[in-house]
UniProtKB/TrEMBL annotation:
One GO term of the biological process aspect: response to desiccation
UniProt KW Cell wall biogenesis/degradation keyword: no
Listed Pfam families: LEA_2
Signal peptide residues on this chain, from the entry's feature table: 1-24
SUPFAM superfamilies associated with the record: LEA14-like
SMART domains to which the protein is assigned, alphabetical: WHy
Top-level division of the source organism's lineage: Bacteria
Alphabetic keyword roster: Signal
Domain Water stress and hypersensitive response per the UniProt entry, residue ranges: 32-151
Protein name as annotated: Water stress and hypersensitive response domain-containing protein
Amino acid sequence: MLITRRRLLLASGALLLSGCAAMRSDFETPSVSLESFRVVPNQGMTPRFALGLRVVNPNPASLPLRGMSYAVDFEGHQLITGVASDLETIPAFGESRFEVEAGLDLINSLRLLNDLMARADRDHLNYKVRARLDAGGFSRLITMEETGQIPISALSGRPAPR
């Protein structure tokens, strides 16, 4: 009985190691970018947004997306979050665009507004877009992040001061 258990453990270990060795080490992390952002009609009190996302797959194998979670931060405050499931497969060396819905965190929105009012002299907002893609399979969670700045004049519709 003890010898059979040892053989089973050794065989399982060997199988696991061979599976890890067969995994590609040259996998390149796909990129995600925010292409559009709009308010969608909503029945509740909290606004909803439609985010247009573009995912680029730089790998020689297609990327079947089972789901994703995403968040948008402004000045360190996580304002917009959402999840999506049953997404399309991103082709090898290809890209896909899709639209997902997200909700607004009212408390963090009020905190951001308070911070902006306290520092009214700022000329830009820092943002961060994070997405976590589930491509299925063993350890295929892919986390992506994009950061940048938005001029405040672009939000108000006024030209930027020179």
